[in-house]
Design goal:
- The strands form four sheets. This protein has a seven-stranded mixed beta sheet. A seven-stranded mixed beta sheet has the order 8-9-10-13-14-7-15. Strands 19-18-17-20-21 form a five-stranded mixed beta sheet.
- It has three domains: 5-110, Aminopeptidase (3-Layer(aba) Sandwich), CATH 3.40.630.30; 135-296, Gcn5-related N-acetyltransferase (GNAT) (Aminopeptidase), CATH 3.40.630.30; 306-398, Nonspecific Lipid-transfer Protein, Chain A.
- It has helices at 16-25, 31-40, 93-107, 161-176, 187-195, 250-261, 280-283, 306-312, 361-368, 374-379, 390-398, and strands at 5-8, 47-51, 54-68, 72-84, 112-116, 129-130, 133-139, 155-159, 208-213, 219-228, 231-232, 235-236, 238-246, 266-274, 291-297, 299-303, 319-326, 335-341, 346-350, 357-360, 383-385.
- 26% of the residues lie in helices and 32% in strands.
- The protein has eleven helices and 21 strands.
- The chain is globular, with a radius of gyration of 23 Å.
- The chain binds coenzyme A.
């Protein structure tokens, strides 16, 4: 197997990254895309594989703060921009980049890495587990009556982009710190998002913004959406595409959906990346009208430092568990670890005690954010219960409600 140099890009080489990535994903980045990309990237974390002076493989990372159960934050590498040119694929370049990148993540002291996968077959071999799922949903707003009236003392207010840029980041940031699975958004992220480049619109309008304000005038939720105009035979049927929705309080959530469902000339409201336990179904008088069109994997998590990762989050109930973890790709997470944890504290350390559960590091990643039960993975033969009752204990400790989900693509 030929070996290719893998190293971070220099500043003057950076455009090799979007170019190679664009070829792999089938698009040509505009000059604006290139500039936005470079502004948002962390250069020292932007790895490339070189064949001579050509970039043939790419793998970047963001230094994220990830919210974990218990509304706590942990440093996590947000892996991004992974690609290998068609001319160089299936020669082990991705494998070499993943090894190099994960070692770098460990050196930086980040206990885990997270990513969104273009294809769900790719990352399990590197120790990533499917940590959060998401739904794509659709509803015809003409069947969007609520089962019960909403007593909202606040109001919805439409904002132009400039006003939105002052309000949305703060509302999002307060919310993401409460919601397991969410990551922080930098000022550069907001900058690019609010520029709203044509390449992100997919035939829809520019972004519209509506914010919810409490009776005292405090912004406490918002929705950003596009409209895809559709008229057939003189009849309106616009598609309202939700792009970003933040509303933690139940009344704010109901008011925001009421706003969306009441938009005139609409034939459908669609959203991607919604939580799998979307409360909207329970607001509707006719819940079957809310259709789930896709259920898919969203965040993948790769734990590198088991004690640091497991003690960073909190757990739904008190309990003790000894986990035997196997890390075939790197070996870093291999070992037996004793977890003593509950809703307010957690500690985890290597142990010689007998294991309660045995699992791969990828499957530990799948359990980590509380989105999946150990007993479900056991039913697929992925978790081995060594001590009777350990699966039920792990389910009670790890699983969290609401389900974890991430609102930021990266
Ligand atoms: C996915 C991609 C990065 C893989 O790069 P690569 O250098 O070919 O990967 P490797 O040669 O290191 O492959 C390692 C193993 O994964 C398998 N693999 C990699 N990509 C795969 C895919 N898309 N489908 C199925 N198997 C895949 C390989 O067959 C190989 O298996 P083996 O160890 O049993 O031989 C590359 O195909 C690509 O750029 N695809 C398009 C863009 C994309 O999807 N990027 C990922 C963004 S999240």
């Amino acid at each position: 197997m030929a070996s290719f140099e893998i190293r971070p890009l220099d500043e003057d080489e950076f455009e090799g990254l979007p170019n190679a990535f664009g070829v792999a994903f089938g698009f040509q980045p505009s000059e604006q895309d290139m500039a936005d990309w470079q502004a948002g990237a962390e250069l020292d974390r932007s790895l490339a594989a070189f064949d001579g002076d050509q970039v043939v493989g790419t793998a970047g990372a963001f230094s994220f703060e990830l919210t974990v159960p218990g509304a706590r934050q942990v440093a996590a590498a947000g892996v991004t921009a992974v690609s290998v040119r068609t001319t160089h694929k299936r020669r082990g370049i991705l494998t070499s980049m993943m090894r190099r990148q994960l070692e770098d993540v460990a050196q930086r002291g980040e206990p885990l890495a997270i990513l969104l996968a273009s294809e769900s077959v790719i990352y399990g071999r590197f120790g990533y587990g499917l940590a959060t799922s998401h739904d794509a949903i659709e509803i015809d707003p003409r069947h969007g009556a609520f089962a019960r009236p909403v007593d909202d003392r606040g109001r919805m207010r439409q904002l132009e982009k400039d006003a939105a840029s002052k309000v949305l980041p703060g509302v999002f940031d307060a919310s993401r710190k409460r919601n397991p699975g969410d990551v922080n958004r930098t000022a550069t992220w907001w900058d690019t998002y609010l520029k709203d480049p044509e390449s992100r619109r997919q035939g829809g309008s520019g972004l519209f913004f509506a914010v919810h304000e409490s009776a005292k005038g405090k912004a406490d939720g918002y929705v950003a959406y596009r409209v895809k105009n559709e008229w057939r035979h003189g009849l309106p049927g616009n598609e309202i595409r939700i792009d970003d929705l933040v509303a933690d309080d139940p009344t704010v959530y109901a008011a925001t959906w009421r706003y969306l469902l009441d938009i005139d000339l609409a034939g459908s409201i669609t959203a991607w990346g919604r939580p799998v336990d979307e409360p909207l179904r329970w607001l509707l008088a006719d819940p079957r009208r809310l259709r789930t069109t896709v259920t898919g994997d969203f965040l993948w998590a790769r734990i590198l430092d088991v004690p640091a990762a497991l003690s960073a989050r909190h757990y739904t109930v008190h309990g003790d568990l000894v986990l035997e973890v196997t890390d075939e790709f790197l070996g870093r997470a291999t070992g037996r670890f004793a977890l003593t944890a509950g809703p307010d504290s957690a500690s985890c350390a290597p142990t010689k005690k007998k294991a309660d559960l045995a699992l791969s590091v990828a499957d530990l990643g799948a359990l980590y954010l509380g989105g999946h039960a150990a007993s479900t993975l056991a039913r697929a033969g992925r978790v081995d219960e060594k001590t009777k009752g350990a699966l039920a204990r792990a389910d009670a400790m790890f699983v969290t409600h609401p389900a974890p989900y991430c609102r930021t693509g990266f």
